[in-house]
TrEMBL record:
<dbReference type="GO" id="GO:0045048">
    <property type="term" value="P:protein insertion into ER membrane"/>
</dbReference>
<dbReference type="InterPro" id="IPR005351">
    <property type="entry name" value="ASTER"/>
</dbReference>
<dbReference type="GO" id="GO:0005789">
    <property type="term" value="C:endoplasmic reticulum membrane"/>
</dbReference>
<keyword id="KW-1133">Transmembrane helix</keyword>
<protein>
    <submittedName>
        <fullName>Protein Asterix</fullName>
    </submittedName>
</protein>
<comment type="similarity">
    <text>Belongs to the Asterix family.</text>
</comment>
<dbReference type="GO" id="GO:0044183">
    <property type="term" value="F:protein folding chaperone"/>
</dbReference>
<dbReference type="Pfam" id="PF03669">
    <property type="entry name" value="ASTER"/>
</dbReference>
<keyword id="KW-0472">Membrane</keyword>
<keyword id="KW-0812">Transmembrane</keyword>
Length: 110
């Protein structure tokens, strides 16, 4: 009696198969965290070496994006080191020159 009341239909079940595009299975691997991590490190080094505050802030922004888009299985040490490098770039740039940041295009107008 219980089987007659069961709304499921096993003859209508279809097994899931991942979609195939150009004869390759989509893996869903997003490279955004890796690119942002590399950009964050490049901008951090530019902010530290050239004392550009806007580079340091862009590095911090890229590191935040990398952290937000990372997966649990990603290497957390590299993401954390990029984040700390960008924070140190911001801190060091303001320790060297505590004046407020002026955007690069503001100097061209004068």
């Amino acid at each position: 009696m219980n089987n007659s009341m069961d709304p499921r239909r096993p003859d209508r079940e279809i097994r899931y198969r991942p979609s195939v595009v150009n004869n390759q299975v989509q893996s869903g691997d997003d490279a955004t965290p890796d690119y942002m991590n590399i950009l964050g490190m490049i901008f951090s080094m530019c902010g530290l070496m050239m004392r550009l505050k806007w580079c340091a802030w862009v590095a911090l922004y890229c590191s935040c994006i990398s952290f937000a888009n990372s997966r649990v299985s990603d290497d957390t040490k590299q993401i954390l080191s990029s984040f700390m490098l960008s924070i140190s770039a911001v801190v060091m740039s303001y320790l060297q020159n505590p004046q407020p940041m002026t955007p690069p295009w503001a100097n061209a107008m004068q």
